[in-house]
Amino acid sequence: MNNKSEHGGSGSQAGGFSLAECLIALSLSLFVVCASLEFFGLAQKHFFGRKEKEEAGQDAMAALDKMRIDVLRAGQGLSGAVALGLLETVAKTSDGLEIVRAENAYILDGSVAAGSTRIALTRTTDIKAGREICISDGDKGEIQTVTTVEGGAVVVSAPLAFAYDAGAASLALLERVHLSWDQSLRSLKRKVNASSAQPLLDDVRLVDFEYDEQQNIVRLRLSLDGQGENTYEIVIFPKNPALARTG
Fold this sequence. Notes:
The protein is α+β, with helices and mostly antiparallel strands. Helices cover 32% and strands 34% of the residues. Strands 1, 2, 3, 4, 5, 6, 7, 8 and 9 form a nine-stranded antiparallel sheet that branches.
């Protein structure tokens, strides 16, 4: 009896774990957990880094697409004015690019004599003081600045250089879009007429606006902070000025 009892107790002790073995197992488990957490942290950091770069790239392409639309609208509704050489619908500026198009077209409500400053129109919707207008009849034309809008007519800042017949002349309200890069703020901006410039894209390291007037090609190129040498670029052919010059 005593021998069996001692033998049974000895077998039970042999089937357990010693304190040293438990400590070793706990240490190994802790090492695995810590290594897994570190790996997860690095993977998460890498994932969010890639995600931020991808979102930044999408924002850059969206900004370029917005500028592409502006450039493609250059000269819209101004074929006569372009053919007469009254204005440049795409122009390189010191800090970016300026694009001009006709925002609205209007019909004269009666002929206008040379030297007059009042132009009667069938409607004056959207015309405000300070806005530019272009009046032309295919043979002649001029750019004027509106000083006053009164019942059914606009008053311009200078006497008209030419006379215009109501049946042949047309008037267009000009929209000027100025695309620029604020280097100090590292911000790509868009300004319409006299309104304040609105940011199109932030954290912009470099922007290059190119306009080849001979080939009528606009090239827009930009790079972002944190994107290394990665560059986003589009090439645009503004067809309206080209058609006006060859038409």
